[in-house]
Amino acid sequence: MNQTTPTLAQALAQAHTLGLPRIDAQLLLLHALGRPDAGRAWLLAHDTDALEPGAHDAFIALCQRRTAGEPVAYLTGRKEFYGLMLQVDARVLDPRPDTETLVDWALKVMAPMPAPRVVDLGTGSGAIALALQSQRPTAQVLAVDASPDALAVAQANAKRLDLPVRFQQGNWLQGVRAPQDAEGAWDVIVSNPPYIPSADPHLAALTHEPLQALASGADGLQDIRLIAAQAPAHLRAGGWLLLEHGYDQAEAVRNLLIHHGYGQVQSRNDLAGIARCTGGQWPVAQTMK
């Protein structure tokens, strides 16, 4: 086999020498081959197949962009989240598997509700809202984002997946209204807001993603504070506010919710065992009208 026609296995070995994790290289190779849905097992079964020069050039170019920090999801234009294949690009954050922890928790609190009313704040690609709608078809789900570009991505995903999520442009809960039959109140408010401190050195490695969806003030809690303060006026008695946050922010977020009068305040761990989500229930006696 000459150098212009490497096998699939040889191409993956090249990616390894460039420093790419194997799963990233496999996803990029499937994309370069025009077989994004074939799966990694298909690559193993065809590892001696020749990779045509054009596909090889495209694959190496994708690998180089990946090593420069561009997320795989942006390079392929797609990302699976909670069993849904989403289309994503640089207008929205790359959905992370950790965020499925927030979806799991929301589904648990929604379980006893026949037709839960749910709002997803800062929806981005629509990942959380669409996952909840797909799992609970009777839910009334509203997805909110301040960015019209992000809403365009989320709306396209909803249309392609044929999920009846509603969308609204807005800054967190400002101007958000519940369905008419809800008397102005939501059963569940969920959000994966920006939570990285503005001076965090890790932001330098995230230059391909929208900064406004990542950073939130000096301590990373600016937006979480705002949501926690706004939510009581929009939650029904017994309704829940569930928030994703940074790996080291659980205690601060719990204290913040307790300070605002939420009950049942608790955190949930992600797949790595890190407290990644914190939430609380608005007590019946303190529901604001």
Main sheet characteristics: 7 strands, mixed
Structural class: alpha/beta
Q: What is Rg?
A: 21 Å
Strand content: 15-25%
* Count of the separate structural domains: 2
Low-confidence stretches: none
Helix content bin: 25-40%
- N to C succession of SSEs: HHHHHEEHEHEHEEHEHEE
* Corresponding CATH superfamily of the largest domain: Vaccinia Virus protein VP39
List the quaternary state of the chains.
single chain
Please report the total strand number as a whole number.
9
Please, how many helices?
A: 10
Mean of the pLDDT scores?
A: 87
The CATH topology name of the largest domain reads: Rossmann fold
Q: In CATH's first tier, which class of the largest domain applies?
A: Alpha Beta
- Strands of the biggest beta sheet: in what spatial order? 5-4-3-6-7-9-8
Shape: elongated
Distance between the termini: 74 Å
Tell me what the CATH architecture of the largest domain is. 3-Layer(aba) Sandwich
Please characterize this protein's 3D structure.
With 289 residues, the chain is of the alpha/beta class. A seven-stranded mixed β-sheet has the order 5-4-3-6-7-9-8, with helices on both faces. A two-stranded antiparallel sheet has the order 1-2. It has two domains: 61 residues, no CATH class; 208 residues, Rossmann fold, CATH 3.40.50.150. Helix content is 35%, strand content 18%. It contains ten helices and nine strands.
What order do the helices and strands come in, and which of them pair?
Layout: H1 8-17, H2 22-32, H3 40-45, H4 53-67, H5 72-76, E1 78-81, E2 84-87, H6 100-110, E3 117-121, H7 127-135, E4 140-145, H8 148-161, E5 166-169, E6 186-191, H9 222-230, E7 235-244, H10 250-259, E8 263-269, E9 275-281
Parallel strand pairs: 3-4, 3-6, 4-5, 6-7
Antiparallel strand pairs: 1-2, 7-9, 8-9
Helix pairs in contact: 1-2, 2-4, 6-7
